[in-house]
Amino acid sequence: MSIHNVIQVEGLTKKFGDFTAVNAISFKVEKGEIFGFLGANGAGKTTAMKMLIGISIPSSGKATVAGFDVFTHAESIKKSIGYMSQKFALYDDLTVKENITFFGGIYGLSRKRIRQKSAVLIEELGLEKVANKLVGALPLGWKQKLSFSVSMIHDPKIVFLDEPTGGVDPITRRQFWEMIYKAANQGITVFVTTHYMDEAEYCDRVSIMVNGKIEALDTPKKLKEQFKVANMNDVFLKLARG
Ligand SMILES: Nc1ncnc2c1ncn2[C@@H]1O[C@H](COP(=O)(O)OP(=O)(O)OP(=O)(O)O)[C@@H](O)[C@H]1O
To answer: Which part of the chain is the ABC transporter domain (predicted)?
Structure first.
Protein backbone atom coordinates (compact mmCIF):
# COMPACT_ATOMS: atom_id res chain seq x y z
CA MET A 1 0.00 0.00 0.00
CA SER A 2 1.23 3.51 -0.77
CA ILE A 3 1.80 5.50 2.43
CA HIS A 4 -0.25 8.28 0.91
CA ASN A 5 -3.37 6.19 0.40
CA VAL A 6 -5.11 5.89 3.74
CA ILE A 7 -8.09 4.15 2.18
CA GLN A 8 -7.67 1.58 -0.60
CA VAL A 9 -10.71 -0.23 -1.94
CA GLU A 10 -10.80 -2.80 -4.72
CA GLY A 11 -13.87 -4.62 -5.97
CA LEU A 12 -15.59 -4.23 -2.59
CA THR A 13 -19.00 -5.88 -2.60
CA LYS A 14 -21.82 -6.39 -0.11
CA LYS A 15 -24.75 -8.66 -0.77
CA PHE A 16 -27.88 -9.10 1.33
CA GLY A 17 -29.24 -12.43 0.08
CA ASP A 18 -29.68 -12.03 -3.68
CA PHE A 19 -29.55 -8.24 -3.49
CA THR A 20 -26.21 -6.54 -4.18
CA ALA A 21 -26.19 -3.31 -2.15
CA VAL A 22 -22.56 -2.44 -2.98
CA ASN A 23 -21.31 -3.75 -6.30
CA ALA A 24 -17.53 -4.07 -6.78
CA ILE A 25 -16.51 -0.52 -5.89
CA SER A 26 -12.86 0.56 -6.22
CA PHE A 27 -11.16 3.81 -5.17
CA LYS A 28 -8.27 5.27 -3.18
CA VAL A 29 -8.25 8.19 -0.76
CA GLU A 30 -5.08 10.11 0.10
CA LYS A 31 -3.94 11.45 3.46
CA GLY A 32 -5.52 14.82 4.23
CA GLU A 33 -7.99 14.56 1.36
CA ILE A 34 -11.66 15.54 1.70
CA PHE A 35 -13.43 12.75 -0.16
CA GLY A 36 -17.13 13.23 -0.92
CA PHE A 37 -19.16 10.04 -1.13
CA LEU A 38 -22.39 10.86 -2.95
CA GLY A 39 -25.40 8.93 -4.16
CA ALA A 40 -29.19 9.04 -4.10
CA ASN A 41 -31.10 7.45 -1.19
CA GLY A 42 -30.49 3.71 -1.19
CA ALA A 43 -27.47 3.90 -3.55
CA GLY A 44 -25.36 1.98 -1.03
CA LYS A 45 -23.29 4.70 0.69
CA THR A 46 -24.01 3.72 4.30
CA THR A 47 -23.50 0.03 3.50
CA ALA A 48 -20.11 0.83 1.94
CA MET A 49 -19.12 3.06 4.83
CA LYS A 50 -20.04 0.39 7.38
CA MET A 51 -17.62 -2.01 5.67
CA LEU A 52 -14.86 0.62 5.76
CA ILE A 53 -15.29 1.38 9.47
CA GLY A 54 -15.11 -2.30 10.34
CA ILE A 55 -18.66 -2.94 11.48
CA SER A 56 -19.86 -4.95 8.45
CA ILE A 57 -17.97 -7.80 6.81
CA PRO A 58 -17.79 -7.45 3.00
CA SER A 59 -19.11 -10.27 0.80
CA SER A 60 -16.05 -9.98 -1.45
CA GLY A 61 -13.31 -7.64 -2.64
CA LYS A 62 -10.46 -5.97 -0.77
CA ALA A 63 -10.09 -2.87 1.37
CA THR A 64 -7.56 -1.37 3.74
CA VAL A 65 -8.27 1.59 6.02
CA ALA A 66 -5.36 3.30 7.81
CA GLY A 67 -3.26 0.37 6.61
CA PHE A 68 -5.50 -2.27 8.18
CA ASP A 69 -7.43 -4.95 6.33
CA VAL A 70 -11.21 -4.71 6.79
CA PHE A 71 -11.51 -8.52 6.86
CA THR A 72 -8.82 -9.27 9.40
CA HIS A 73 -8.14 -6.08 11.40
CA ALA A 74 -11.52 -4.43 11.96
CA GLU A 75 -10.71 -3.70 15.61
CA SER A 76 -7.50 -1.84 14.66
CA ILE A 77 -9.51 0.18 12.12
CA LYS A 78 -12.03 1.19 14.78
CA LYS A 79 -9.21 2.60 16.94
CA SER A 80 -7.70 4.56 14.04
CA ILE A 81 -10.83 6.30 12.83
CA GLY A 82 -13.53 8.69 13.97
CA TYR A 83 -17.14 8.19 12.95
CA MET A 84 -20.09 10.54 13.07
CA SER A 85 -23.32 8.82 12.17
CA GLN A 86 -26.37 10.23 10.39
CA LYS A 87 -28.27 10.07 13.62
CA PHE A 88 -26.91 12.42 16.24
CA ALA A 89 -24.67 10.39 18.56
CA LEU A 90 -24.19 12.35 21.79
CA TYR A 91 -26.33 11.90 24.90
CA ASP A 92 -29.05 14.56 25.29
CA ASP A 93 -29.34 13.92 29.01
CA LEU A 94 -25.65 14.51 29.75
CA THR A 95 -24.02 17.95 29.81
CA VAL A 96 -21.51 19.08 27.16
CA LYS A 97 -18.61 18.33 29.53
CA GLU A 98 -20.05 14.97 30.59
CA ASN A 99 -20.44 13.90 26.96
CA ILE A 100 -16.83 14.81 26.20
CA THR A 101 -15.63 12.93 29.31
CA PHE A 102 -17.77 9.91 28.49
CA PHE A 103 -16.63 9.58 24.87
CA GLY A 104 -13.03 10.37 25.76
CA GLY A 105 -13.21 7.40 28.14
CA ILE A 106 -14.71 5.15 25.48
CA TYR A 107 -11.86 6.06 23.14
CA GLY A 108 -9.38 5.14 25.87
CA LEU A 109 -7.99 8.59 26.70
CA SER A 110 -6.42 9.16 30.14
CA ARG A 111 -8.24 11.43 32.61
CA LYS A 112 -5.56 14.07 32.17
CA ARG A 113 -5.85 13.95 28.37
CA ILE A 114 -9.64 14.14 28.61
CA ARG A 115 -9.37 17.27 30.80
CA GLN A 116 -6.96 18.88 28.32
CA LYS A 117 -9.03 17.94 25.29
CA SER A 118 -12.24 19.04 26.96
CA ALA A 119 -10.86 22.53 27.69
CA VAL A 120 -9.52 22.98 24.14
CA LEU A 121 -12.66 21.69 22.52
CA ILE A 122 -15.03 23.82 24.59
CA GLU A 123 -12.95 26.91 23.86
CA GLU A 124 -12.62 26.20 20.13
CA LEU A 125 -16.36 25.67 19.78
CA GLY A 126 -17.19 28.71 21.95
CA LEU A 127 -19.23 26.53 24.30
CA GLU A 128 -17.89 27.97 27.58
CA LYS A 129 -21.28 29.31 28.66
CA VAL A 130 -23.10 26.04 28.00
CA ALA A 131 -20.39 23.58 29.09
CA ASN A 132 -22.49 22.52 32.08
CA LYS A 133 -25.82 22.54 30.22
CA LEU A 134 -27.53 19.41 28.93
CA VAL A 135 -26.71 18.70 25.28
CA GLY A 136 -30.43 18.19 24.69
CA ALA A 137 -30.94 21.93 25.25
CA LEU A 138 -28.48 22.98 22.52
CA PRO A 139 -29.48 23.99 18.98
CA LEU A 140 -28.98 21.19 16.41
CA GLY A 141 -26.07 22.97 14.70
CA TRP A 142 -24.13 23.21 17.97
CA LYS A 143 -24.81 19.56 18.67
CA GLN A 144 -23.49 18.59 15.23
CA LYS A 145 -20.30 20.59 15.68
CA LEU A 146 -19.78 19.11 19.14
CA SER A 147 -20.45 15.63 17.79
CA PHE A 148 -17.85 16.15 15.04
CA SER A 149 -15.25 17.33 17.56
CA VAL A 150 -16.00 14.41 19.87
CA SER A 151 -15.60 11.98 16.95
CA MET A 152 -12.01 13.28 16.66
CA ILE A 153 -11.18 13.42 20.37
CA HIS A 154 -8.72 10.52 20.04
CA ASP A 155 -6.82 12.16 17.12
CA PRO A 156 -7.85 9.64 14.46
CA LYS A 157 -6.13 9.43 11.06
CA ILE A 158 -9.44 9.34 9.23
CA VAL A 159 -12.87 10.62 10.09
CA PHE A 160 -16.02 9.21 8.48
CA LEU A 161 -18.99 11.58 8.42
CA ASP A 162 -22.36 10.21 7.38
CA GLU A 163 -24.53 13.18 6.35
CA PRO A 164 -23.12 15.33 9.15
CA THR A 165 -25.00 18.50 8.25
CA GLY A 166 -28.48 17.03 7.67
CA GLY A 167 -31.14 19.49 8.80
CA VAL A 168 -28.87 22.33 9.90
CA ASP A 169 -29.05 25.90 8.58
CA PRO A 170 -26.70 27.18 5.83
CA ILE A 171 -24.59 29.34 8.17
CA THR A 172 -23.96 26.46 10.56
CA ARG A 173 -23.23 24.18 7.60
CA ARG A 174 -20.61 26.69 6.45
CA GLN A 175 -19.04 26.72 9.95
CA PHE A 176 -19.13 22.94 9.99
CA TRP A 177 -17.20 22.89 6.70
CA GLU A 178 -14.63 25.26 8.14
CA MET A 179 -14.05 22.63 10.83
CA ILE A 180 -13.70 19.97 8.12
CA TYR A 181 -11.07 22.06 6.30
CA LYS A 182 -9.18 22.60 9.53
CA ALA A 183 -9.11 18.85 10.20
CA ALA A 184 -7.91 18.16 6.63
CA ASN A 185 -5.20 20.82 6.95
CA GLN A 186 -3.94 18.97 10.02
CA GLY A 187 -3.56 15.84 7.88
CA ILE A 188 -6.78 14.11 8.90
CA THR A 189 -8.50 12.41 5.99
CA VAL A 190 -12.21 13.25 5.76
CA PHE A 191 -14.63 10.80 4.15
CA VAL A 192 -18.02 12.47 3.98
CA THR A 193 -21.46 11.63 2.60
CA THR A 194 -23.87 14.43 1.87
CA HIS A 195 -27.06 15.19 -0.01
CA TYR A 196 -26.15 18.87 -0.34
CA MET A 197 -24.59 19.55 -3.71
CA ASP A 198 -22.99 22.83 -2.60
CA GLU A 199 -21.05 20.71 -0.11
CA ALA A 200 -19.95 18.39 -2.92
CA GLU A 201 -18.25 21.44 -4.45
CA TYR A 202 -16.18 21.84 -1.25
CA CYS A 203 -14.66 18.33 -1.53
CA ASP A 204 -11.25 17.64 -3.10
CA ARG A 205 -12.71 14.68 -4.97
CA VAL A 206 -16.19 13.28 -5.23
CA SER A 207 -17.49 9.81 -6.07
CA ILE A 208 -21.08 9.28 -7.12
CA MET A 209 -22.78 5.95 -6.47
CA VAL A 210 -25.75 4.73 -8.49
CA ASN A 211 -27.42 1.44 -7.58
CA GLY A 212 -24.42 0.09 -5.70
CA LYS A 213 -21.79 1.11 -8.29
CA ILE A 214 -19.45 4.09 -8.43
CA GLU A 215 -20.41 5.72 -11.72
CA ALA A 216 -18.17 8.80 -11.50
CA LEU A 217 -15.13 9.82 -9.46
CA ASP A 218 -13.03 12.97 -9.87
CA THR A 219 -12.54 16.52 -8.66
CA PRO A 220 -15.72 18.64 -8.79
CA LYS A 221 -14.10 20.73 -11.55
CA LYS A 222 -13.31 17.72 -13.76
CA LEU A 223 -16.72 16.13 -13.17
CA LYS A 224 -18.43 19.34 -14.32
CA GLU A 225 -16.22 19.37 -17.43
CA GLN A 226 -16.86 15.68 -18.09
CA PHE A 227 -20.63 16.09 -17.92
CA LYS A 228 -20.57 19.55 -19.55
CA VAL A 229 -22.60 21.20 -16.80
CA ALA A 230 -22.12 24.24 -14.56
CA ASN A 231 -22.58 22.73 -11.10
CA MET A 232 -22.44 19.49 -9.12
CA ASN A 233 -26.20 19.40 -8.80
CA ASP A 234 -26.46 18.91 -12.58
CA VAL A 235 -23.69 16.29 -12.55
CA PHE A 236 -25.66 14.41 -9.91
CA LEU A 237 -28.97 14.72 -11.78
CA LYS A 238 -27.42 13.51 -15.05
CA LEU A 239 -26.01 10.42 -13.37
CA ALA A 240 -28.90 9.62 -11.08
CA ARG A 241 -31.39 9.90 -13.96
CA GLY A 242 -29.15 7.76 -16.17
N1 LIG B 1 -29.20 -5.13 6.41
C2 LIG B 1 -29.77 -5.00 5.21
N3 LIG B 1 -30.51 -6.01 4.68
C4 LIG B 1 -31.05 -5.89 3.45
N5 LIG B 1 -30.95 -4.81 2.66
C6 LIG B 1 -30.24 -3.77 3.15
C7 LIG B 1 -29.62 -3.81 4.44
N8 LIG B 1 -28.98 -2.63 4.63
C9 LIG B 1 -29.19 -1.89 3.53
N10 LIG B 1 -29.95 -2.57 2.64
C11 LIG B 1 -30.38 -2.11 1.31
O12 LIG B 1 -29.22 -1.75 0.59
C13 LIG B 1 -29.48 -0.61 -0.22
C14 LIG B 1 -28.45 0.46 0.10
O15 LIG B 1 -28.74 1.03 1.38
P16 LIG B 1 -27.83 2.13 2.06
O17 LIG B 1 -28.42 2.45 3.38
O18 LIG B 1 -26.41 1.71 1.99
O19 LIG B 1 -28.05 3.36 1.06
P20 LIG B 1 -27.58 4.86 1.21
O21 LIG B 1 -26.96 5.22 -0.09
O22 LIG B 1 -26.77 5.03 2.42
O23 LIG B 1 -28.96 5.63 1.36
P24 LIG B 1 -29.35 6.91 2.28
O25 LIG B 1 -28.84 8.10 1.53
O26 LIG B 1 -30.84 6.84 2.30
O27 LIG B 1 -28.72 6.72 3.61
C28 LIG B 1 -30.92 -0.19 0.05
O29 LIG B 1 -31.73 -0.74 -0.98
C30 LIG B 1 -31.22 -0.84 1.38
O31 LIG B 1 -32.60 -1.15 1.48
So the answer is: 7-236
- Measured in angstroms, how far is the CA atom of residue 33 from the centroid of ligand 1? 26
Residue of 46, 55, 191 best suited for mutating to test ligand 1, as the one with most atoms within 8 Å of CB: 46
**Distance between Cα 59 and ligand 1 center (Å):** 15
The pocket around ligand 1, CB under 6 angstroms, is made up of 16, 19, 21, 39, 41-47
pTM: 0.93
CATH number at residue 187: 3.40.50.300
Count of the separate structural domains present in the chain: 1
User: What three-state secondary structure class fits 220?
Assistant: helix
ipTM of the complex: 0.95
Q: What is the DSSP letter of 45?
A: H
Q: Looking at residue 232, what is its pLDDT? A: 94
For residue 110, report the distance from its CA to the centre of ligand 1, in Å: 37
Structural domain including 152 reads: 5-241
Given a cut of 50, whether residue 72 has pLDDT beyond it is yes
Q: What is the pLDDT of residues 167-193, one digit of tens each?
A: 888 888 899 999 999 999 999 999 999
